[in-house]
Structure prediction request, 221 residues.
Amino acid sequence: MPYAGGGASAFWDWADLLGSSVELWCAVLPGRERRFAETAETEAARIAEPLAEAVREKIRTPLVLFGHSMGGLIAFDVARRLGGLVEHLFVSATRAPHLKSGDEPHLLDDDGLLDWMTRLGGVPADLLAHREMLALLLPTLRADLTVCARYRGTEDVIDVPITAFAGTGDPLASEAEVAAWERHTTAGFDLVVRPGGHFYLKDDPAAVTSVLCAAAKEGVQ
Prediction:
């Protein structure tokens, strides 16, 4: 499940890394890629509810969920709705949902929002040269960041193991803020710290997928 402003294509390369024993499914959310004509949602529940239904209908168990940044919050909400169907939840570069965010990037003007995302490393270099395309993508990014801002404060707990990934230099989700996910599960918690910033997983995706593969194998057993 993708980060704010991101799409399923961010994870397509993971198919080879995960190997033939793992079937990769990527969520295509409203407002991006083949659903670009749809309006992006600003409430997590309006994303998670239909997504959970789609998972029930289409995806076989054992099932693990992974979400990066905003995707971590959505994955948590989907796991809450699916209950025992989920073997493991992975959240990445995501502050624990009970922690309220002091940042409000969704309130910035377009130039400020683009600068904010660029400094995080979330805008591909080749896209920066296409201002017209960026202008089309900003409403979806703003909507996604609104989802994050409105989600904070929940104390929900799930009976699903959670593994949380943190980047050592992430300005949006510190190690302590990611470690705080431990209070949202009754089924075991693990913290994995990787070098890098908010988009640390782009530097060494294999280090992330290897952890997911290990969990998938446990689920099969």
Observations:
- The CA atoms of residues 90 and 188 lie 12 Å apart.
- The radius of gyration is 16 Å.
